[in-house]
Structure formats: structure tokens, C-alpha cells
Design a protein that fits this description.
9% helix; mainly beta; 247 residues; four-stranded antiparallel beta sheet; 2 helices; globular; 2 domains
């Protein structure tokens, strides 16, 4: 919505966000915003869609007015068309992965394919939630088909897990190579600790995306925004790991 008043409060200070529309950005900001949003530019260097967003008024100066901190709660207030919408989220404390690495396929016909793995020691308090995204060779971060999990079945355990390479919305699905990285790739894993509301939103969204068809049942995508708002207000506790594939 254009011309809304959007305010973020961290319990101490408040920042009123500024609206930016992609079609109106100065040319020098386009690649910066594309990377920030995880959008791939077309062959002419333009955005594939024209949307407007609200962000910190000083975000492009490199010194934003408010910086997210692990352990803090952030409140969102939107005033638009005589209605008020609110939401609250917490940036959880960071939970680092023990290690991140790749393994290649033993079959000589597919030994250029590598699977990304992580090792985690989950804290022994039930109720940790995670989301992942990957970047391949400097491209934006994308998710696989199932990007979130809770720790219901591995609370307090140390174990190895596989990480699918994220797939761009415009990328053709290939059943033989889905989830793999390739020899020579630079793989970056963005590991996010999230709260329960964020987990519930993405779980319902991904379930809805995977149940298309005339005989599938409707799924209600969950939200934490009041007054009939849609979407999610979420905070990520993020760590990054880089792996050079095949080296």
C-alpha cells in the first residue's frame, strides 16, 4: 500500500520507515537493492517486477537508524486508510552450526554433483526453530522446497543433516540435479534461527505451494499480523558459512 505510516520499535527507540518503489530507484542503487532483496535483474539490468517497500530511511548510507540485535523484541505498527495493523517478533539468540561441508556422489557418472551437509548441536531446550537459504556463486539466496524445521524430533541432539541447494523461482526443476551443487561452485549457507510464528508461517506457505491441483484441499497461510493483515513480520538470527565445492 502506498503512503502508509510504518513504524518499528525495539523497546527503546522507534524508526518511521521510508517507502521506496523499485521503478523509481536511482541507477546506482539498483544492484544494491537487488542483492538486498534477493532478486535477479534481467538482461537489461532491470527488476523483474515493480514493487514498493518500506525500509530504514538510512539503509543505503551504510549506517541504518536501527540495527537488529539477537535477543530483542521488535514491534511493527502500520497505519493505513484509517486502520492500524500490528505485529511483534523476536530475533532469537544465534545457534551456530558445528560445521558445514560437502560430499560428492560416488558414481563416476555423477561425481561432479555435491551435496551440502551441516552438523548441529541443538540446545536441550525444546522449541528451537530454523530456516535455511543458500547462494550459489554469488547469486541471491534461495530456499529449497522445505526450508524450515523445528527441533521436536532432535531436541538436544548432535547430528548431520543435508541441505538442498536453493532454487530460483525462474529456474527449471531438474529431478536429477535438484538440491546439488557442482564442482567449482562457491556455496554459501545462510542459517537462520527463527521464532515459532515465523516457523508456522513458512510451514503453511510451503505446504500450500506444494499442494496445487484440482483435488488438493485449501491451506490457510498463517500470519502474525493483526486486524486481517497478511504476511509475516519476522526476525532472523543469522550466521553464514562458505564452502568451496570440489576443493
Amino acid at each position: 500500500a502506498h503512503d502508509a505510516e510504518v513504524i518499528v520499535n525495539d523497546g527503546t527507540a522507534s524508526v518511521t520507515l521510508t517507502e521506496y518503489c523499485l521503478s523509481e530507484l536511482p541507477e546506482e542503487l539498483i544492484p544494491i537493492v537487488a542483492e538486498f532483496l534477493g532478486l535477479a535483474l534481467d538482461s537489461l539490468g532491470n527488476f523483474p517486477v515493480d514493487v514498493c517497500l518500506y525500509t530504514d530511511p538510512d539503509i543505503f548510507t551504510g549506517i541504518p537508524s536501527m540495527v537488529g540485535e539477537a535477543g530483542k523484541i521488535y514491534s511493527l505498527t502500520i497505519n493505513y486508510n484509517s486502520k492500524t495493523y500490528t505485529a511483534q517478533t523476536k530475533i532469537p539468540e544465534l545457534i551456530y552450526l558445528d560445521s558445514v561441508y560437502v560430499k560428492n556422489q560416488p558414481d563416476p557418472d555423477t561425481d561432479s554433483l555435491y551435496r551440502l551437509y551441516g552438523m548441529i548441536s541443538d540446545p536441550d531446550t525444546l522449541g528451537n526453530y530454523y530456516r535455511y537459504l543458500t547462494s550459489q556463486n554469488g547469486e541471491p539466496f534461495y530456499t529449497g522446497f522445505a526450508s524450515v524445521t523445528d527441533d521436536l524430533f532432535f531436541n538436544g541432539q548432535t547430528f548431520e543433516f543435508t541441505v538442498d541447494r536453493g532454487i530460483a523461482p525462474t529456474e527449471d526443476y531438474n529431478v536429477d540435479t535438484y538440491g546439488y551443487f557442482f564442482t567449482g561452485d562457491t556455496a554459501i549457507l545462510k542459517w537462520c534461527v527463527i521464532d515459532q510464528a515465523t516457523y508456522t508461517f513458512f510451514t503453511s506457505l510451503e505446504f500450500d505451494s506444494g499442494t496445487d491441483g484440482p483435488f488438493s484441499s485449501a491451506t490457510i497461510v498463517q500470519t502474525n499480523i493483526s486486524n486481517g493483515g497478511l504476511g509475516i513480520w519476522c526476525g532472523y538470527g543469522v550466521t553464514y558459512d562458505t564452502v568451496y565445492v570440489g576443493e
